[in-house]
Amino acid sequence: MRVSAARSLQILQKYNSLYPEPKRPFLHNMLREWEAEKPLKGFRILHNLVNSYETLLKLEPLVASGAELTVTAFDLIKLPFQDKIDQIINEAGLRFVPDYKYAGGEYDIVLDCGARSLAIPGLRITKGIVELTRT
């Protein structure tokens, strides 16, 4: 279910309110700046990383930035509350691909872990990739 960026932000902020500004000053400042400036407007971003409650904090400024965000389910690590996180991502109306191998397509930026993006058929990256591990 796709929803507006404003509705996505509202849903993410509901869950992220557990982390007030003093607990996340960098992300809070980035959120305010990116909401105003929209530096990633039109950028297609693939988030191919472990999803946790902390991930929701990171997704909020990415949505606010104007990015077209696709989030995958990561297969190397499954957290005990993974289903709840995936449910929140879906509730927020973000494009969610439960099996990252089906996230092929063209993206400007890929956020990756464990070089898993190498296993995505048809993946084309136009600007760059950020690799979390040393892979």
Structure description:
- This protein has 135 residues and is an alpha/beta fold.
- It contains four helices and five strands.
- A five-stranded parallel β-sheet has the order 3-2-1-4-5, with helices on one face.
- It starts with a helix and ends with a strand.
- The model has no long low-confidence stretch (mean pLDDT 91).
List descriptors.
135 residues, alpha/beta, five-stranded parallel β-sheet, 5 strands
What is the element layout, followed by pairings?
Blueprint lengths: L4 H12 L8 H13 L6 E5 L4 H12 L3 E5 L9 H10 L3 E3 L7 E8 L10 E9 L4
Parallel strand pairs: 1-2, 1-4, 2-3, 4-5
H/E element sequence: HHEHEHEEE
Q: Which structural class best describes the helix and strand composition?
A: alpha/beta
Sheet-strand content, in percent, reads: 15-25%
Cα distance, first to last residue? 34 Å
What is the C-alpha radius of gyration, as a whole number of Å? 14 Å
Reading side by side through the largest sheet, how are the strands ordered? 3-2-1-4-5
Total number of strands: 5
Low-confidence stretches: none
Helix content bin: 25-40%
Q: Choose one word for the global shape.
A: globular
Largest sheet: 5 strands, parallel
Average pLDDT = 91
List the total number of helices.
Answer: 4
